[in-house]
Known about the structure:
It is built from three helices and seven strands. By secondary structure, it is α+β, with helices and mostly antiparallel strands. Helix 2 crosses helix 3. The radius of gyration is 15 Å and the shape is globular.
Amino acid sequence: MKLPSKLTSFEQFLFFDDYPSYPNTIGCHLALSGALSPEFLGLAQELVCKHHPMFRTTLEMVGRKPAWNRCHQQAIVERLPEHFLDRPFVKKIDLHQEAGGQLHWVHHRNRTSLNFLTHHATADGVGGLQVVSDWLAA
Length: 138
C-alpha cells in the first residue's frame, strides 16, 4: 500500500461523520478463559498488520483533504485496567492521533477480555471481523 494515499469518497464521508457522541467505531468483545501471553499479542499484531495495512494508518491533512499515512504509534495493542474485565470497551478513535484498528485487552487470574476496535473509515464490520479472525488464527 503506497502512503500517503487519498481517501475514497466513502472513507471521507465516514471520517467527517464521526462525532464523539456517535463515534464510527466498530467493536468486537471476546471473553476467554485461560492464560494470555502479551508476547503472543505483539507477534500476532505484526502478522495481522501485514495482511491489513489499514490498521496501522492514521489521517493527516494534505492541503485541505485528509490522506492515509503510516501510524506513528509503536503498538496498536493496549492493556486495560482489571475493572474492564468482562465489559465491552468502545471509544472514539481519533484518526489524526491513533491507528484505525486497535486491540485492548485485560487479563486477570484465568480470564481474559479482548476488545477489538475498528474505525469504520478503515474497514467495514465484515472487514473488522476478518481481522479478529486473523488475529485469533495468528
